[in-house]
Structure formats: structure tokens, C-alpha cells
């Protein structure tokens, strides 16, 4: 199942707004139409949006060549439309930026399409590697809680958080996955539960407000979520409601793990407070299926994301590493950096279930490739 793909000059996406009742595809032939579907969440999720950004640029390039339009002008206009469609989702801008680099190097429409397809294929490889790495970290977890949808529907063919869950199911086995329904658009109950059911993974859908009580009662071994942007200091933007799960996990002493590709790490955004938060239409909160349920005269507030501070994140798992500091791979440290020469704990060293980075020493080393549970 490919969430998004390129087929002979157009983009085909699964219409996620109609799941789980109907599985249908939309064929998209121009960038303006793609932007409409991005805003409506017909295509969504960090990795899928990165690919959508690249393929949107490819649509603009092929149209410019076909209609003898100014290629650079068409690409610049397409880039503005795409990036503004979902301002919090850094992967969307990343996909656009990757194509802009290719064009700057002299590529024409064919080269731009080839680059977009390469980004699609790299997403497949990255999420497969990420899933393996995350499953190793949580090898002893049997009860996982997740939020929103970070599965195949959020990528091309594999997921991040659900990729980790899928590998755990296939290798060590899981007793239960708790799926937060994810108000107001119910990506958890509609999309994540649909994916888990297709793979035969035992799961229960819970209301978002039940998660903290379940975690504190000892019913969850680990929380695993995706991310829409990771700031340079390790703060994480993800679907609204994620922060509450991180707070509960910290209080309960269980791992809170973020699974996201390297492209989601935005070193140009210093902290979570610098991440723009998309505010969606209040009717998504005040109405259900177009019918108002809130009292007349009530106003709504509908942020699509919240920010989880890095101090609450046990590990960020990418396709290349399990890290504590997105800025630090050891290659660019000062010679006087106190971290030089330090080694991660031995895999045989006992690890407390409540061990977390100090708020004054955040993201200071790569997480050992060992069980967190």
C-alpha cells in the first residue's frame, strides 16, 4: 500500500479523509490541487508530506516544460504554495527545498522528477531502518501507547512510530497497543486502528483523556509517537495531545520515544517556541460531521500541534541513530568540549526505569542501543 506515488506524470494519493469506511485514491495533476488535498489532510504525515512537497515541485516542472512556461517562475510559485499549506510540518518544506537544490544545479523537468522519485525511495529505506532501530530499543515492551497516526499512511509505505510497533509485533510480540483517538479529526481511531487491524495487531482505541490514567496505573510499558518537527534543542512538535502523554510517561518512569526521520530534525529552528503552530478551523472542534455539537455562541480554539520539551523525551530514533542531541554527532565539538572522550554506558550496565536526561544536561550523547524498558 503506497500512500503517495508518481504515476506517469501525475501524483496518486490515498484519500485519508474517507478512511476507514472507504479506501479510494485521488489522482492529482497540478500543484494547486495537491495543496488543497494537503490542507484537507487527504495526504498527511511528516514523511508523506516530504514526498508530496517534492512531487508537487515535479508537477510544476512538468507543466512548465509542457506548456512552455518559465520554469523557475513556476517552481518559485509552487514552492510558496506548498510550504504555506502546512507551516508546522518541516518535511513539506524539506521536500520542496531538496528539489530547489536540484534545479539550482541545472536539472530540467526530467531531472526534477527523478529527484522526487529518489526522495520517495529514500523514505522507504529510512523508515525500514528506523523501525528496526526503535524495536531494538523497546525489545521488552509489551504494551505500547501511541497518538495520532505515524504509520504507513504518514509515509510512502512504512511508518515511523507504527513501523516500530510493527517490528515489535513481528519479532518479540506485543500484548496490546493503546491507540489514542486523537481529537478532533480522529486520526488514531480512523487511521492507526485501521492499519493495526490490517496487520492483525491487538489494539484498543481510547479517548485521549484516558491515556494519563492508564499510564499512571501501570498499564503501559512505553509511549511511541512520531513528529512533525524536531527543533535543534530537541523539542518536538507533534499532534496536539502528545505533550500530555509525555508528562504522564515521565511521572510513571516509562520511556517516551519519538520516531522520526532525519529530515524531520530542523537545525534552523532553535527551540520549540520558534516552531510555528498551525491553527485550524474552529469548526473541527465545534462540529462533528458538519453538525454543531457545541453550545450556540461558543468559540473554538484548534491548534493542530503542541510542543513536547526535550527534557521529557527519552530518545529520538531516526534511520541513522538513537540520539539525545540532534546537533551533536561528535564531529563538530570544540576541542575543549567536556563531552569529548566520554563513552556511553556499557550495554550491561543496569539502567533505572526512571533514568532521564537532566534538564541541565539535555541531549548530550547518543542513546545506547539497548533496551529502554
What's the SSE blueprint?
Layout: E1 4-7, E2 10-14, E3 25-28, H1 31-39, H2 46-66, H3 71-85, H4 90-104, H5 109-137, E4 143-147, H6 161-171, E5 176-180, H7 187-198, E6 203-206, H8 211-216, E7 222-225, E8 229-231, E9 236-239, H9 242-252, E10 256-259, E11 265-266, H10 283-286, E12 287-288, E13 291-292, E14 305-308, E15 315-317, E16 322-323
Helix pairs in contact: 1-2, 1-3, 2-3, 2-4, 2-5, 3-4, 4-5, 5-6
Mean pLDDT, rounded to whole units?
Answer: 88
The total count of strands amounts to 16
Rounded to an integer, what's the Rg over CA atoms? 21 Å
CA-based shape? globular
For this entry, give a set of tags.
single chain; 373 residues; alpha/beta; 7-stranded mixed beta sheet; 4-stranded mixed beta sheet; 10 helices; 16 strands
Describe the overall structure.
There is one protein chain. The chain is built from 10 helices and 16 strands. It has helices spanning 31-39, 46-66, 71-85, 90-104, 109-137, 161-171, 187-198, 211-216, 242-252, 283-286; strands spanning 4-7, 10-14, 25-28, 143-147, 176-180, 203-206, 222-225, 229-231, 236-239, 256-259, 265-266, 287-288, 291-292, 305-308, 315-317, 322-323. The strands form 4 sheets. Strands 6-5-4-7-10-15-16 form a 7-stranded mixed β-sheet. It has a 4-stranded mixed β-sheet with strand order 11-8-9-14, covered by helices on one side. The chain is globular, with a radius of gyration of 21 Å. The model is unreliable at 325-365 (pLDDT under 50).
Amino acid at each position: 500500500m503506497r500512500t503517495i506515488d508518481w504515476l506517469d506524470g501525475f501524483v496518486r494519493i490515498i484519500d485519508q479523509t474517507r478512511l476507514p469506511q472507504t479506501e479510494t485514491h485521488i489522482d492529482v495533476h497540478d500543484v494547486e490541487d495537491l495543496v488543497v488535498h494537503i490542507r484537507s489532510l487527504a495526504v498527511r504525515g511528516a514523511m508523506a508530506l516530504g514526498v508530496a512537497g517534492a512531487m508537487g515541485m515535479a508537477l510544476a516542472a512538468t507543466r512548465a516544460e509542457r506548456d512552455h512556461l518559465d520554469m523557475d517562475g513556476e517552481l518559485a510559485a509552487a514552492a510558496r504554495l506548498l510550504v504555506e499549506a502546512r507551516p508546522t510540518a518541516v518535511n513539506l518544506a524539506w521536500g520542496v527545498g531538496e528539489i530547489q537544490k536540484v534545479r539550482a544545479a541545472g536539472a530540467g523537468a526530467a531531472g526534477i522528477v527523478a529527484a522526487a522519485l529518489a526522495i520517495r525511495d529514500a523514505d522507504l529505506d529510512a523508515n525500514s531502518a528506523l523501525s528496526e532501530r526503535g524495536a531494538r530499543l523497546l525489545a521488552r515492551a509489551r504494551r505500547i501507547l501511541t497518538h495520532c497516526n505515524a504509520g504507513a499512511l504518514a509515509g510512502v509505505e512504512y511508518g515511523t512510530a507504527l513501523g516500530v510497533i510493527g517490528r515489535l509485533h513481528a519479532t518479540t510480540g506485543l500484548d496490546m497497543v493503546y491507540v489514542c483517538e486523537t481529537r478532533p479529526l480522529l486520526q488514531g481511531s480512523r487511521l492507526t486502528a485501521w492499519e493495526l487491524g490490517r496487520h492483525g495487531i491487538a489494539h484498543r482505541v481510547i479517548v485521549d483523556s484516558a491515556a494519563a490514567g492508564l499510564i499512571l496505573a501501570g498499564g503501559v510499558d512505553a509511549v511511541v509517537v512520531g513528529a512533525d518537527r524536531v527543533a535543534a534543542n530537541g523539542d518536538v512538535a507533534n499532534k496536539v495531545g502528545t505533550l500530555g502523554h509525555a508528562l504522564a510517561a515521565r511521572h510513571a518512569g516509562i520511556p517516551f520515544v519519538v520516531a522520526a526521520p532525519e529530515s524531520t530534525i530542523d537545525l534552523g529552528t532553535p527551540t520549540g517556541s520558534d516552531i510555528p503552530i498551525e491553527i485550524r478551523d474552529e469548526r473541527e472542534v465545534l462540529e462533528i460531521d458538519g453538525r454543531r455539537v457545541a453550545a450556540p455562541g461558543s468559540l473554538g480554539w484548534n491548534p493542530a500541534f503542541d510542543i513536547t520539551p526535550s527534557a521529557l523525551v527519552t530518545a529520538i530514533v531516526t534511520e541513522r541513530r538513537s540520539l539525545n542531541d540532534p546537533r551533536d554527532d561528535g564531529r563538530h565539538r570544540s576541542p575543549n568540549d567536556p563531552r569529548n572522550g566520554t563513552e556511553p554506558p556499557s550495554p550491561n550496565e543496569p539502567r533505572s526505569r526512571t533514568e532521564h536526561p537532566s534538564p541541565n544536561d539535555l541531549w548530550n550523547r547518543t542513546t545506547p542501543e539497548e533496551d529502554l524498558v
